[in-house]
Amino acid sequence: MSLSFDPSSVALPSGHFIGGEWIDATGGIELLRPSDGAAFAACPIADADLVDRAVTTAKQTLASSGWARVAPRERTLALQRWADLIDAEAEKLARLEAIASTRPIAELMAVDIPVTAEQIRFFAELADKEGGDLVPTASDSVGLIATEPYGVVGAITPWNFPVNMAGWKLGPALAAGNAVVLKPSEMTPFATLYLAELSVRAGLPAGLINIVLGDGRTTGTAITGHPDIAKVSFTGSTAAGAAIMENIARTGIKPMTLELGGKSPQIVFADADLPLAAGAIARSILGNAGQACVAGSRLIAAESIAEELASLIAERMGQIRPGPTWEAGSGYSPIISERQIGRMESIVGAAVARGARCLLGGARLERPGYFYAPTLLDAVEAASPAVTEEIFGPVLTVQTFREEEEGLALADHSTYGLCAGLYTRDLSRALRAVNRLQAGTIWVNRYGRSRDHILPTGGYKQSGLGKDLGREAYLANRKSKSVLIAI
Q1: Residue 390 is a catalytic residue
Q2: What is the SS3 assignment for 486?
Q3: In the structure, what pLDDT confidence band is assigned to residue 14 with cuts at 50, 70 and 90?
Q4: Domain match, 241 and 276 both
Q5: Which helix (H) or strand (E) holds 75?
Q6: Is 169 a catalytic residue?
Q7: Phi first, then psi: what are they for 461, rounded to 5°?
């Protein structure tokens, strides 16, 4: 059976989801489909009063349901039921996501939705396996480090992988015994709303997950500054992360996890397997049309193999299947908005005007919607915005080096340190580079996350604070207290 569908045939969730109920709302931000530019819905904006209602509901639900105090295995089983329902409702979730977002329906069904269910199960299993510690103290006392949930966690997710990012936030927070008030991106809210509805159908207490829609300026600010939000988790741009830190500092100190921007290097040494490297690099910049914080957008290649490698990458980058996200055969994503594609055009145009060679692409694709051709820029100045700024699109720049240290120096970015890739057959060189690179995640002879959810993700420098995924994400949703008992 084909996965293709008519976007006008899908009924979209309407309003906010608080306490297990739909809260009617009208008007707000007009939404345009990235695949064809057509207006199709509006996203309401929750004000501070509605956010307060959601937070109060979450707080009351924690108290009345005893979610934080139940036997940990009960939380595990409840979350596993939710994950099973996510799998069962995969097609509806995928359709809701495909209409508004940049994610093709086939990729949603094959990757995004099943991975989200996997992530929920992963964190569910930590609920009864991670606890406090008995620590060594003097013989006349017993020392304990006890952990407990924060209470209500405020979460804000981006538009590029909406369901996955919701899973990143909801899974560890709920498994650790918290309730959540979550704001999805105003551009892609629909699948996240349905995800919350499924949690209630799976038996999680209504009010444990509350979804409020809106923008960052109004709704996001109200969430991060609310006095009863005990912890904040955000994925998005570095600029937005800085604004959240400022708001938290102004309204009351609280812990936060911030997964922010990146401008990640991919270093290819002369001894690398070039076809392998070319395939990995091309996939990293073509995936979601480069609209990922981990996109490997800076190729740093040994001078002796740079031309051959660029040719192999260009060949692979040219093999795309653009199309509406609701058609099963589509394999290349649109850009999220006209504003974003315009910014991309400006940065690429400026780089070419300053002497960069456009080996591939460099323009919109001539078709409906916001599609931009995969672009390969060679001989780009180190100070060019194409090299220094996060473009968030399918644009790969090429820089070359002769000596190992020169390549590693080029890889070091003054602002970002989210991810890095390196390609070599020399294990000693790989280990030297791993020690040298300033990045929270490093991939060797591959690029991109696997389905090993035990590996945490998070950046150095202005690419973020704290970790998502892994055991670290669960622990980040619990606070600890030291206990010393005299015998």
Answers
A1: yes
A2: strand
A3: confident
A4: no
A5: helix 72-88
A6: no
A7: 55, -135
Rounded Cα distance between 437 and 9, Å, is 49
Task: Record the pTM.
Answer: 0.96
Distance CA 291, CA 335 (A): 8
Residues in the chain: 487
Q: What is the Cα–Cα distance from 50 to 44, expressed in whole angstroms? A: 11
DSSP state of 296: -
Instruction: Please state, in angstroms and rounded to a whole number, the distance separating the CA atoms of residues 144 and 158.
Output: 38
Our answer to whether residue 481 is catalytic in this structure is: no
β-bridge pairing 441-444 and 478-486: unpaired
Contacts of 423 (CB under 8 A, 6+ apart): 266, 267, 268, 269, 272, 273, 276, 277, 280, 444, 445
Of 259, 327, 404, 467, catalytic? 259
- CA dist 143 and 125 (Å) reads 26
Residue 377 has pLDDT above 70, yes or no: yes
- 210 and 308, same domain (yes or no): no
Task: Give the DSSP H/E element, type plus range, for residue 141.
Answer: strand 141-149
d(CA 364, CA 233): 35
Give buried/exposed letters for 71-94 (b at 16+ CB in 10 A, else e).
Answer: ebeebbebbbbbbebbeebbeebb
Q: Is residue 292 part of a domain?
A: yes
Cα-based angle 154, 158, 161 (whole degrees, multiple of 5): 120
CA 1 to chain centre: 30
pLDDT on residue 230: 98
Provide the domain limits for residue 476: 7-260+464-486
Q: Which of 293, 327, 419, 467 is catalytic?
A: 293
**Residue 43 and residue 33: Cα distance in Å, rounded?**
13
**Active-site residue (options: 169, 183, 263, 461):** 183
Q: Which two tokens stand for residue 125?
A: 């299993």
Coil vs helix vs strand at 161? coil
For residues 252 and 367, state if they share a domain. Answer: no
CATH for 166: 3.40.605.10
pLDDT for 251: 94
Residue 300 CA to residue 410 CA, distance in Å, equals 7
Alpha carbons within 13 A on the beta-carbon side of 42: 10
Count other Cβ atoms within 10 Å, centred on residue 353: 9
Catalytic residue among 89, 97, 327, 390: 390
- Tell me the C-alpha distance between 404 and 437, whole Å: 12
Active site includes 381? no
Does 190 share its domain with 283?
A: no
**1 pLDDT above the threshold of 80:** no
SS (H, E, C) 167-181: HHHHHHHHHCCCEEE
83 and 230 share one domain: yes
pLDDT, tens digit, 9 for 90 and up, residues 403-444: 999 999 999 999 999 999 999 999 999 999 999 999 999 999
